[in-house]
Write a structure and sequence with these properties.
eight-stranded mixed beta sheet; four-stranded antiparallel beta sheet; globular
């Protein structure tokens, strides 16, 4: 069972990179159009990070709901098969943060495996995704696997660091410097507030007054981040590049397995490597792919992208947009109430339910 939730920053224009920290419902199409019109009369820096005000409590709660649903599904599987792979193109640490809270509460027992092993320093290795935790009785007469979610950052993570020929994973924010200091964030605040305000117009959009030296210093620090940019350019460091392709191979292997299921959400398939990989894997007749689309417009686009593949279903809501909350409440849910399933448009001719049954593949 596989998921690709929440893509990283989307390439809106060739000169601007927007990263809405924590926001789960940005209207990228509207923002792109506004930026194109605005940038035709103004000069943008080569790359620009914009911070927006978000409802972080709601976002965290959505992650909690999502993880709990995954764990409930895993409990339906056989004892030694309670594992799934979660491939994400996000750079943030929302999943580890929420998983830590759930484990600390003690109501559920599970493992979030990010591929890192170690004690004082945790090193990332692809082979660690093949391990799992098993519990046995006092006399070892029985054994049960602990539900496990493999968290695979295919586009890297801001919590990764290069250590020689290895990658260190460190979630301690105190050990990392801020990409933007307080002065830079203060300069960006008016721009961000105006861009996030639906009632503002382009004439009111202020231009952040950064010196060339400040821009050069930012770009120097930004290029050291172990993340994939939303362009055909990938990693600067070979060690991150190698791990990136190892994770793509892992995704390919998983999609080739019998009765494999791939659910994507918040992913535009703009990454050509992942798009081509999924298309090649669709030759597997046992693979089922469910593409959850943010809007009907994105559904129509992805429907054309996967035209001719019978084992792909593109889902969108009849009314409204499929943000994180709608995805949890109306699509990826164990609640079989008919009221929750109404209003879901599908790109397939034959009806198909958006809920997945791990024991037997897709639930018809």
């Amino acid at each position: 069972m596989l998921f690709i939730p929440f893509s990283g920053p989307t390439p809106l224009t060739r000169v601007a990179l927007l990263a809405f920290v924590g926001s789960d419902t940005p209207d990228w199409t509207e923002i792109a159009e506004r930026l194109k019109r605005w940038s035709s009369h103004n000069v943008l820096p080569p790359e620009l990070i914009v911070l927006a005000t978000v409802d972080s409590a709601r976002l965290v709660e959505n992650y909690r709901t999502f993880i709990k649903t995954v764990l409930q599904l895993l409990q339906r599987r056989k004892s030694l098969e309670r594992r799934c792979n979660l491939f994400t193109t996000n750079y943030d640490g929302c999943f580890p943060l929420v998983a830590d809270e759930l484990v600390r509460e003690g109501n559920v027992d599970f493992v979030l495996n990010d591929g890192a092993r170690g004690f004082r320093r945790r090193y990332l290795q692809a082979r660690n995704f093949n391990t799992y935790l098993c519990q046995t009785g006092v006399f070892e007469r029985h054994q049960t696997s602990v539900p496990q979610i493999n968290l695979v950052h295919v586009h890297g993570s801001v919590y990764w660091k290069k250590d020689g020929a290895s990658i260190v994973v460190d979630y301690d924010s105190r050990s990392s410097g801020d990409l933007l200091d307080a002065a830079a964030q203060a300069k960006l605040a008016p721009f961000s507030a105006c861009l996030a305000n639906t009632e503002s117009n382009l004439d009111e959009l202020p231009f952040p007054d950064f010196t060339q030296g400040e821009l050069d210093a930012f770009m120097s620090a930004y290029h050291r981040l172990p993340i994939v940019n939303p362009t055909k350019w990938k990693f600067f460091e070979t060690v991150f590049e190698e791990h990136y392709y190892q994770m793509l191979r892992m995704l390919s292997y998983e999609l080739e397995k019998p009765n494999a299921v791939l659910i994507t959400f918040g992913f535009s398939f703009a990454d050509e490597h992942i798009l081509n990989l999924v298309k090649r894997s669709l030759a597997n007749p046992h693979l089922q792919v469910f593409v959850c689309c943010f809007s009907q417009r994105s559904r129509d686009k992805l429907q054309l992208e996967f035209k001719g593949f019978d084992n792909v279903r593109c889902l969108a809501l009849d009314e409204g947009r499929m943000d994180f909350s709608a995805f949890n409440e109306r699509v990826f849910t164990l609640d079989e109430s008919p009221s929750l399933r109404t209003g879901i448009q599908q790109a397939a001719n034959e009806p198909i339910a958006p809920v997945i049954d791990l024991d037997g593949g897709a639930a018809a």
